[in-house]
């Protein structure tokens, strides 16, 4: 029982900061002026904001080329 309790405590200590960072990011992204953002767009924007260290390493030219290489929708 004590082992189980310790596992729960460790899990809470890890998950609480992650949740707080996510909610903080949502507060920054979704303010009064943009409160009608679609859920899918909000999720994508939050992921980019939270993982901004990785996102800054992307080259915009390569993203544009990848987008151009997609087949056109009919």
In brief, what are we looking at here?
The chain is mainly α. The protein has helices at residues 2-29, 39-50, 52-55, 60-69. The protein has one domain.
List strands and helices in order, with pairings.
Blueprint: H1 2-29, H2 39-50, H3 52-55, H4 60-69
Helix pairs in contact: 1-2
General description of the model:
With 74 residues, this protein is an all-alpha fold. It contains four helices and no strands. The protein is elongated and about 60 Å long. It has one domain (2-57). It has helices spanning 2-29, 39-50, 52-55, 60-69. Helix content is 73%, strand content 0%.
Which key terms come to mind for this protein?
single chain, 74 residues, mainly alpha, 4 helices
Uncertain runs are none
Alpha-beta content class: mainly alpha
Radius of gyration: 19 Å
Overall tally of structural domains: 1
Topology as H/E string?
A: HHHH
Helix content: over 70%
- In round numbers, the mean pLDDT is 76
Estimate the strand proportion.
under 5%
Major sheet size, sense and barrel closure = none
């Amino acid at each position: 029982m004590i082992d189980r309790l310790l596992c729960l405590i460790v899990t809470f200590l890890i998950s609480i900061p992650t949740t707080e960072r996510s909610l903080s990011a949502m507060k920054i992204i979704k303010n009064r002026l943009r409160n009608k953002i679609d859920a899918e767009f909000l999720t994508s924007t939050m992921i980019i904001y939270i993982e901004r260290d990785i996102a800054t390493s992307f080259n915009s030219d390569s993203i544009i080329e990848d987008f151009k290489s997609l087949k056109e929708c009919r």
